[in-house]
Amino acid sequence: MTHTQVQNVSTCKVPHAPVVIAWVDAALAETGRTGVELTVRIVDEQEGAELNRRYRHKNFPTNVLSFPFEDPPEVNTNILGDVVICAPLVIKESSEYSVPLNTRWAHMVIHGVLHLCGLDHQTDQDAAAMEAMEMRLLTQLGLVEPLSAANDS
């Protein structure tokens, strides 16, 4: 069983923990990861900007950040890492991209978890593979596929 901890800011537009856990589990199943632990933390714009500044040296908030956990030498845990999602940006992007809010939330959770599982979008080929996996998962979950322009993470 996978353990997922969800921490969030107080807002009525943030999905409930069981829904987030279902999205996490779908992404983990797609990548063959089982028995892992991760945290999904939902933050405000100020914390999102601070984290992006501190870890990516970019002076603005971003929609999703992933922090893979690396076990110390000679230690083996089942901790995958942390996914941090900036709630105000997800809500704003939902409107900008004309994507249902629930779909945008699911997309950002899945995107962050896929990063923790080692997927990336540094090359066009990697980006296409990651986007295809995200679209497949969103379709399996019964959600509207986001527009390609929404895949800016």
Detailed description of the structure:
By secondary structure, the protein is an alpha/beta fold. The protein has one domain: Metalloproteases ("zincins"), catalytic domain (Collagenase (Catalytic Domain)). Helices cover 46% and strands 16% of the residues. The protein is built from 5 helices and 4 strands; from the N terminus they run βαβαββααα. Strands 1-2-4-3 form a 4-stranded mixed beta sheet. Helix 1 packs across helix 4 and helix 3 crosses helix 4. The C terminus is likely disordered.
How many DSSP helices?
Answer: 5
Structural class: alpha/beta
CATH superfamily caption:
Metalloproteases ("zincins"), catalytic domain
Number of separate strands: 4
CATH top level assignment: Alpha Beta
**Number of separate domains:** 1
**SSE run:** EHEHEEHHH
Shape: globular
Low-confidence stretches: 146-153
Strand arrangement within the widest β-sheet reads: 1-2-4-3
Please compute the radius of gyration using only Cα atoms.
Answer: 15 Å
The assigned CATH architecture is 3-Layer(aba) Sandwich
Distance between the termini: 28 Å
If you consult CATH, what is the topology?
A: Collagenase (Catalytic Domain)
| Proportion of residues in β-strands | 15-25%
State the helicity in percent bands: 40-55%
What average pLDDT do the residues reach?
88
**Major sheet attributes:** 4 strands, mixed
Task: Set down the secondary structure blueprint.
Elements: E1 3-7, H1 17-31, E2 37-43, H2 45-56, E3 64-68, E4 79-86, H3 87-96, H4 101-116, H5 124-140
Parallel strand pairs: 1-2, 2-4
Antiparallel strand pairs: 3-4
Helix pairs in contact: 1-4, 3-4, 4-5
